[in-house]
Design a protein that fits this description.
Helices cover about 40% and strands about 20% of the residues. With about 375 residues, it is of the alpha/beta class. It folds into two domains: about 1-315, HypD, alpha/beta domain 2 (Rossmann fold, 3-Layer(aba) Sandwich); about 315-355, no CATH class.
Length: about 375
């Protein structure tokens, strides 16, 4: 019989825990569920829940957003992108166009979409125009893009791909001098696609307990209980607390589509830097549908040097779990959902936006790590 959230909380409170245990999640959906359910306030004070690199919009390189803007402004194309990407600002003076949303207001044909099938439909509906799909996201979003490419796309549709793998960012944190957390809640949807085995390195190489979780308070609390009990008992293993969706090996069909259409490459993460084997690129046989190959003049290599977080913005430290969102100097002052400075306040998966929507208005000063 499955336990209720209250019962899981009672089990957690009954554990003999250290004075301080930091548990990191690396999924924006997890962070949203944790905040909306008020789990931080319900857990023992010794348990800290740290939002980590779980927002693909937040880590999408600034140079990719800039290139998408230049494509939309300078070329006679239709640019489509997932809705969150339209409001991500780039580092330009306020008098200039700084987002895809502003480019759209200036006359560019920029259209928000919710799935790759919409990109295909728009291309079919506009056969005389080039359509560029600015596709940013983690494995869960990249898999449908790969499926779209594997099935075949219209000749006038190309992809500006900014896909990222989740686990390399966690590996980078664990390989650093101080990871800042003692347990990991692994992302449920990513594990559904790629398989839970992708997270075994956390236990095997770093002796840190890990558990895959779903998005209900019950699943999240079950995963927290599992990792806390592992710490208490001195045992380490990868637990699957989302078995109704996450299966061993993951989604083989999705993985096959990704293998057929995409290469894994070193990739830049905004505010973090280049992480080896952490990004996706279209395979050479898809060059006719690669927007980087079709529109090279819109790429500005200098943006990689200057295109980090805006001045004063601590989004990169929030993404890496070094501070909580309300410890950023701009949180709630210069940076709000109405006028975001950094990407973490833009996306529904960004920790700053989630905390603000959850009612956190006061700034704090104590750092996580």
């Amino acid at each position: 019989m499955s336990l209720s959230a209250r019962q899981w909380l009672e089990r957690i409170r009954a554990l003999d825990l250290p004075d301080r245990v930091r548990i990191m999640n690396v999924c924006g959906g997890h962070e949203r569920s944790i905040t909306q359910a008020g789990l931080r306030g319900a857990l023992p004070s010794s348990v800290e829940l740290i939002p980590g690199p779980g927002c693909p919009v937040c880590v999408c390189p600034e140079e990719d957003v800039y290139q998408a803007m230049q494509l939309a402004l300078r070329e006679d194309i239709i640019l489509v992108a997932f809705g969150d990407m339209l409001r991500v600002p780039v580092n330009l003076p306020k008098r200039e166009i700084r987002s895809l949303e502003q480019a759209r207001a200036a006359g560019a044909d920029v259209r928000p979409i919710a799935s790759p099938t919409e990109a295909t439909r728009i291309a079919h509906d506009n056969p005389d125009r080039a359509v560029v799909f600015f596709a940013a996201g983690f494995e869960t979003t990249t898999a449908p893009v790969a499926a779209m490419l594997a099935e075949g796309v219209p000749d006038n549709l190309s992809v500006l791909l900014s896909g990222r793998l989740t686990w390399p960012a966690v590996a980078m944190l664990l390989d650093s001098e101080e990871a800042g957390f003692q347990a990991l809640i692994a992302p449920g949807h990513v594990s559904t696609v790629m398989g839970p085995e992708e997270w075994e390195f956390v236990v095997r190489e770093h002796n840190i307990p890990a558990a895959v979780a779903g998005f209900t308070p019950e699943s999240l609390l079950a995963a927290m209980y599992s990792t806390l009990r592992q710490l208490r008992d001195g045992r380490r293993f990868l637990d699957n607390c989302y078995p109704e969706v996450v299966r061993p090996g993951g989604n083989r069909s999705a993985q096959r589509c990704m293998d057929e259409t995409l290469d894994v490459v070193a990739a830049n993460w905004r505010g973090v830097g280049t992480i080896p084997a952490s990004g996706y690129a279209l395979k050479p046989h898809l060059a006719a549908h690669d927007a980087r190959e079709l529109f090279p003049s819109c790429e500005d290599p200098d943006r990689k040097r200057i295109g980090q977080m805006p001045a004063g913005c601590d989004c990169s430290r929030v993404v890496l779990g070094k501070i909580y969102p309300n410890q950023c100097k701009l949180y709630g002052l210069a940076c709000t959902p109405r006028s975001p400075v950094g990407p973490c306040m833009v996306s529904d998966e960004g920790a700053c936006r989630i905390w603000w929507a959850g009612g956190v208005r006061d700034r704090a000063d104590v750092e996580v790590a």
